[in-house]
Structure prediction request, 749 residues.
Amino acid sequence: MFETLTERLNKTFRNLAGFGKLNEENIQPALREIRVALLEADVHFRVVKSFLENVKKRALGSEVLESVTPADQFVKVVRDELARTLGAEEPPPELRKNPAGPTRILLCGLQGAGKTTAAAKLAHLLGKSALVALDLKRPGAVEQLRVMAEKVQATFLPPADPSDVRLSARKALEEGRAFEHLIFDTAGRLQIDEELMEELVEVAGIVKPDEIVLVLDAMTGQEALNVAETFHKRVPLTALMLTKTDGDARGGAALSIRHVTGIPIKWIGTGERPDAIESFHPERFADRILGMGDVVSLVERAERLTDTKKVESLTKRMLRDGLDLELFLEQMREMRKMGPLTELLSLLPGGGNLAPMAAGSEEELKRFESMILSMTPRERRHPDIIDHSRKRRIARGSGVRTEEVSRMLKQFRKVRGMLGAFTGGKKGNGILRQFFS
Amino acid sequence: MLTLAGRLRRGLEKTRKKMSAVIDVAVGRGLFDDAAAEQIEEALIEADIGPEIALRLVEDVREWVRSAGGGVTAETVREKIEMDIAEILRGSGSGRSEEIPPNGNHSSEQPRVTILVGVNGSGKTTTAAKLAAQAAARGSRVLLGAADTFRAAAIDQLRVWAERIGCEFVAQDQGADPAAVAFDAVQAGKSRGCDEVFIDTAGRLHTQTNLMAELEKVIRVLGKIKPPDHCFLTLDATTGRNGLQQITTFSRSLPVDGLIVTKLDGSARAGVVVEAVERLKIPVRYVGVGETVEDLMPFDPEAFARELVRTE
Ligand SMILES: Nc1nc2c(ncn2[C@@H]2O[C@H](COP(=O)(O)OP(=O)(O)O)[C@@H](O)[C@H]2O)c(=O)[nH]1
Ligand SMILES: Nc1nc2c(ncn2[C@@H]2O[C@H](COP(=O)(O)OP(=O)(O)O)[C@@H](O)[C@H]2O)c(=O)[nH]1
Ligand SMILES: [Mg+2]
Ligand SMILES: [Mg+2]
Prediction:
């Protein structure tokens, strides 16, 4: 199963005698672990190098705390350094507003990064916006923006001349004078496409944007840095928006770009819908890059959506007694209240593997419920005793076919198995246990 | 106007220069020492090959140099790495042939059905159009089915392509059941005597289990009329390590029988496919090298590896 970075680091430190002090020597294996973690998170290899130098300096200079293990202490140094690089010590970046007239926001980036969606998201976030269609290249792009504008109740400004980007930009500026925000969607372009980069420079010259946002896919690999640097050289970027962070990409590109160019990451995209936009939190993102799970978000969402006390007590019960069908049912009911469970689970390290198991539909839940309610208390607590004749009885009692009972039990066992690994077994030290004990 | 290969090369030029220059410098002293190994490893990592395979490739070179008893040149090192990468890629059955071997579902029954899947923005719609246009150019009767009923104007995008290509087009309203659209498309393909049906689907992240289940349903429903002959997964060449997760998860849920690496005309090199192909044994079928319908080429493992490593 998965092994969190902390677990791996724990191992590297465990072999060391004289627990306590970090020194040049005992820190090496840990630095190697961090190196691989960062590279696997798509942080640019050169950034990894200089980042590790900083970490080393800080780790060696750091106070030795009595209460924590070297692994914990080391992780803390790494996280703090990551968060710092991502902007944790600076005030949250704000939108650069134009005091006289509309604030002009120009979006740019590679093909398929999520620019058009980002345009609608920003309109949703900021309100009082007009969306300007300047992608005259991709088939259906103008129509896409029109539909999105409608969804967020923003004004849509179609291109004045569908064959002339520059003219359309100029006309939109005139037409959009009364709006608070003018958001310009542009065609995707490769940073090595000289012609299209030149077009972008000219459009920026016409629009004179207050914000030039590079929209970047969180899944982008090592090349992200080169992309950002090249765009930045041609048009002075003022912000980065990282899209598709609702997936399991670690998003190391954010670190590379921020580290090298200093461009602040202002927003992240968390889904396809126009309200799926959030401001950027350096600490949370540091955890994400390290593969430690977006634990803060998880806790926040859980708090927002459900009775955490209840979940907590259920989880504790599960950790103590193992999972039985009664708990399984209660968990399912509770978790459903939290909204898409899969989304929640995917925020936890390794949770992505668990998610498919728990993704039952409302209907399925109801069927499960009636099957479980048709069982005797003993069957619920010891599902392994359910043999074929018991299955037949349960099926009859709940009006389903016997195979469905089997299927439900199979799924239950799968979840139980997964949870075992997830919690580190009864005596283990898995992530759930850490959070709920 | 650049040729397709030229366009691919232009994109890869930078890397090639970089990696090649690195190898020149690293091995320039005629030694393959730790410093040389590290530099080459980093150049491979920068191509998104991943730390694990990069290290292995470099260690293989080291071993090979040792057994050859020295006499190493930058050129031989390049060749060695290139060959190793090509071999991994060939191992999955990726080949040069224009004709894609049929998967297990293939039957001679018309039409041949190909479905495109992948994460958001990876190039499914454009690739469907490219495949359709190239089939049409070969004289096939072609139909495009718009089963992305989710993204705003996705249907319009595909319709524009169908009009440009002059092929058959099947769509329903925005929000319709994608499985129903796919079914319709194949049925229409049958009744209109089409040779090829290409079905575009909505982008989805592999972590979205409900949306993955939706695709499974599309495949299941198609099974009632004709199981898809091909299920191609598009992968954006700029994708980093997450590509591995994408390919793993998609191919676990769906009968993926080929990868299409899109946007290789950019500067990214899609090194992640090397590991994906090795682990999952899914062949790469085509590469996308631009935004017009001509910009699709059959995948060539040797060329891919060469472009990754070599100078002219
Ligand atoms: N899951 C997810 N999908 C996104 C996000 N942002 C954009 N997308 C999807 O990515 C694809 C490309 O987005 P689009 O805005 O058309 O990209 P553009 O080509 O840069 O304008 C579409 O399928 C969008 O729905 C996001 O934050 N999360
Ligand atoms: N440069 C380049 N752009 C591409 C390629 N394939 C697709 N695109 C562009 O990538 C963007 C997203 O493509 P699309 O087919 O809409 O992706 P989908 O969301 O997966 O259907 C569009 O702007 C396409 O023109 C390619 O091979 N090279
Ligand atoms: Mg767009
Ligand atoms: Mg599409």
